[in-house]
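Q: Sequence in, structure out?
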Amino acid sequence: MKLLKDLLYKCRIIRIVGNTDIPIQNLSFDSRNIGEQTAFVAIRGTKTDGHIYIEQVVKSAATAIICESLPEKLSEDICYVLVKDSSETLGFMACNFFDNPSQKLNLVGITGTNGKTTTATLLYRMYQQNGHKAGLISTVRNYVGEKEFSTTHTTPDPIELNRLLNAMVDEGCEYCFMEVSSHAIVQNRITGLVFKGGIFSNLTHDHLDFHQTFDAYLQAKKSFFDMLPTGSFAITNIDDRNGKIMVQNTKAAIYTMAVKKAASFHCKILENHFDGLMLSINGKELWSHLVGKFNAYNILAIYATANLLGFDELEALIAISKLQPVDGRFEHIKSSDGIIGIVDYAHTPDALKNVIDTINAIQSGGGKLITVVGAGGDRDKTKRPIMAKIAAEGSSIVILTSDNPRTEDPLDILDDMIAGITADKKKKTLVIADRKQAIKTGITMAQPGDVILIAGKGHETYQEINGVRHHFDDREILREFFRSDN
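A: Exactly. Output:
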């Protein structure tokens, strides 16, 4: 149990009406989760404004209301705290409620458009497998030591996030590796956390439905590095044109990584096959089960982080060489007659281009590339024609299909994608809205030595249609049709 006044430490308070010397057993921004001795934080969200529920919350026996505008009628039994920014306040209050668990961990945040999940997950696995208790907060799943927890967002809300971090402390974890999304940064989900280090992977076209402009997206990512404290480290990819911008105002010690340029941590690709990569990192050779140039950057980030956290250099190289690919990230399945199926989460133009370029580089002139790809509904529409264009330019055959249409008509999404196909590429482009049928068609068209890429959903085991999630796993479908074709 905490006192309200203690939870308000670091919060930007404008006015207090009532007594803050009161016990708080529960902290919530959800009006449906209110009980006695609850502090309710009214958040102005993208879909609803928590302030409209204040009256309902008062009737539910809440003890304190934290808000950006006071209601006309004030209850004598409630302490009202007027603040400048409710979402920021919730971040600080959540940290205080759980005794600031991030300060008791080596917390490393990974941000950027692509590579966050792979880097965070493999760092977690590397530390766990080498006797260092760690936690993971990611798009795919969350872990506290070896205990798995479900995930709904790349970065959880501040209360759930601090609850997870606190569980890691209780479990005896020393480290936590965490994906940091641009949404989470802007929405103050990481406010109040103390990071030991931050990693910038890259920045490409994504989430413009939320941020509106690329510059706003860039500034959101940059603000993560702006908040890193003195004594922490920042690893930035300077092969990306925004790499130096990310760290220009950080208090953290800056380290660079690159494949193309001289850097603190430099990597050279010696060999690239469907079975893995042979790399040279700062002059030391390393074999990895991961595939592709884009994964060379992920491996470099992992090595750099381990190095800065004090991991023995040789032990780090050995540990990285044992790591297996993350689910749905360039996950390849081979049929008995020599067709290679690759399932990848690539759902941005840059990620799709990276995967296609990697396949074509490994194929080196032999075999066709058949790409099955769609785009999600209720998300950034501007990337749809770009992704279709990239797929058509880099593939022998393209099958445009449905992804997670959500509340949109799949045919409308496909129309947006078709707009990116130039006249000379339309002959090799098929449009099949049914994703299962699209995958089946791609496999039917493939010959031994060909590669079929199924992009966009990766690890996901569902397809969301009109708000309902139906079971759908690209990997299961691929294996099913590989068997039936044999």
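The domain at 99-322 is CATH 3.40.1190.10 (UDP-N-acetylmuramoyl-L-alanine:D-glutamate ligase).
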